[in-house]
Design a protein that fits this description.
heterodimer, A: mainly alpha, Globin-like, B: 329 residues, alpha/beta, 6-stranded antiparallel beta sheet, 6-stranded parallel beta sheet, 31% strand, binds flavin-adenine dinucleotide, binds protoporphyrin IX containing FE
């Protein structure tokens, strides 16, 4: 069975999505303080890791890794509203790329399944 | 099966095995982390043998050109000689040929390097005073046009090196020079791409080099240079740059003052703000940002949000901390 990642276009789809997505996140004043950094290349690479994951692509992250990666953010107040904002940008990115509604729902379901880990619950 | 030579030892690399895997499997410790071609910690430099495209695609093209690649993504297609990403120390002696004042606070140094320096305009060298004090200065000269090295040094209040250069260093004196360093420079190819160059203070030095390098290399796209200063007396090389704009119809020069009113040919406002409002859509552009670190950081973000790819944004923040590569002890 082809994975969702492959159906979306694999690596190339991620490359197309990452700038669209990262620009949305950086422009959103309700969440961009979490992404303040001088090293934008590194941050962009992490956005790529994020997208690979929610596209169901090959990645080595476990729920525990996600917890660890976001725990410092939770300490700074990361909550459901922020999570929803990221999810919204993700959806908008996919829509702009012309991804089908079914596939978007699949991605959103995958992303949603990480909520408790991302929010350290 | 190909051979990987690392630090003088040859390691076999199995078919479809990556350089990183081959080295680690054989007990060689090199830095790595994500192993997915994302984190870039496993970057190595190839002296011989070209890494396949997959191992280079996430790497900035100026680094690429110097042979850098990601070991975790590199399944060799030929034998390779690779090394860790540390620039071999290029230490040389240089003699001051000329020194003159461009403004009351900025001087231009022309240096003659004892051994030829292979550099790109816009890279920087570290000047080492004989007592060990070292600071970085950007190259305004263009190797294929200018015989000698040109630097612009701004005198900073109580700054050790800049005041010494300003008041004591004189033609005929010798100084140690290390470099070139840095990835902020022009690369030919993509000749019709528009270039946006924004600099504050002596951030103009690398940009003058980059602009001239591009123009004399036949860059056909538009080149827009914005130079910013708080006040009029911080603007320099205005005549030279206006002449350059007359010589090349695709070169445009815009001096800006942020703390004074504009006048004929000088815009009021910060150079970065002015440039970004003149060009709201930077998709497809190459952007060079040099000078004050806060300006460079915020302009980088702005340029990205206005459509430039991160890999097309070259940033050269003039960190005014002590940037010696080696401790002075
Ligand atoms: C990549 C790069 C490229 C560069 N290119 C250029 C260039 O082309 N042209 C250029 O002019 N500069 C350039 N710089 C900056 C340059 O390297 C020096 O940092 C600059 O000249 C100041 O050095 P200095 O020794 O005079 O000042 P420093 O002695 O390092 O002092 C720097 C500042 O800190 C203040 N300061 C120092 N000590 C104290 C203290 N104890 N308490 C309070 N304040 C203090 C000084 O007053 C001064 O304003 C570049 C920097 C980098 C990183
Ligand atoms: C949809 C659920 C999410 C998933 C699957 C996810 C996934 C990831 C992954 C894989 C990384 C890289 C970790 C690493 O390699 O270090 C990461 C980093 C990061 N995430 Fe998320 N993320 C999610 C939601 C969020 C939200 C809601 C925010 C904040 C609004 C956020 C902010 C960040 C930040 C700032 C980093 C970088 C941390 C650092 O610099 O070390 N993430 N995320």
């Amino acid at each position: 069975m082809t994975s969702l990642f492959d159906k979306l276009g694999g690596e190339a789809a991620i490359d197309a999505a990452v700038d669209l997505f990262y620009r949305k996140v950086l422009s959103d004043d309700s969440i961009n303080h979490f992404f303040e950094t001088t090293d934008m290349e590194r941050q962009r690479a992490k956005q790529k890791a994020f997208l690979t994951m929610v596209f169901g692509g090959p990645n080595h992250y476990t729920g525990k890794d996600l917890r660890a990666a976001h725990a410092p953010l939770v300490a700074k107040g990361l909550n459901d509203a922020h999570f929803d904002a990221v999810a919204r940008h993700l959806r908008a990115t996919l829509e702009e790329l012309g991804v089908t509604a079914d596939q978007i729902n699949e991605v959103m379901a995958l992303a949603g399944s990480t909520r408790d880990d991302v929010l350290s619950r | 099966m190909f051979k990987i030579c690392f630090e003088g030892i040859v390691y076999p690399c199995e078919r479809s095995e990556t350089v990183l895997h081959a080295l680690r499997r054989q007990g060689v410790e090199v830095p790595f982390s994500c192993q997915h071609g994302i984190c870039q910690t496993c970057m190595l430099r190839s002296l011989q043998g070209k890494a396949p495209a997959a191992a280079r695609k996430e790497i900035k093209d100026t680094l690429c050109e110097q042979g850098y690649f990601l070991a975790c993504q590199c399944v060799p297609e030929e034998d390779m000689v690779v090394l860790l990403p540390r620039e071999a120390d290029l230490y040389g002696r240089a003699v001051v040929l000329e020194k003159h004042f461009l403004t009351p606070h900025i001087c231009r140094l022309v240096l003659k390097s004892a051994t030829p320096l292979y550099y790109h305009a816009g890279q920087f060298v570290n000047l080492h005073r004989d007592d060990g004090l070292a600071r970085s200065y950007s190259l305004a000269s263009v190797p294929h046009r200018d015989k000698h090295l040109e630097l612009h040094v701004k005198r900073m209040k109580n700054g050790l090196m800049s005041n010494w250069i300003y008041s004591e260093l004189k033609p005929g004196d010798a100084i140690d020079l290390e470099g070139p360093n840095g990835n902020c420079y022009y690369l030919p190819g993509r000749e019709v791409q528009s270039l946006l160059l924004i600099g504050t203070g002596t951030g103009l030095a690398p940009l003058v080099g980059i602009a001239r390098d591009a123009l004399y290399s036949g860059h056909g796209g538009e080149i827009h240079l914005y130079h910013g200063s708080h006040s009029r007396d911080g603007l320099y090389l205005m005549d030279t740059l206006r002449d350059l704009a007359k010589e090349f119809s695709n070169f445009h020069y815009m001096p800006c003052v942020s703390g004074e009113r504009g006048e004929e040919g000088i815009r009021a406002g910060r150079a970065d703000d002015t440039a970004f409002s003149d060009f709201p859509n930077l998709a497809g552009w190459r952007v060079f940002l040099c000078g004050s670190p806060p300006m460079v950081a915020s302009a980088k973000r702005k340029a990205y949000l206005q459509g430039a790819r991160l890999a097309d944004i070259y940033a050269d923040p003039f960190e005014v901390s002590d940037r010696r590569l080696k401790p002075r002890d």
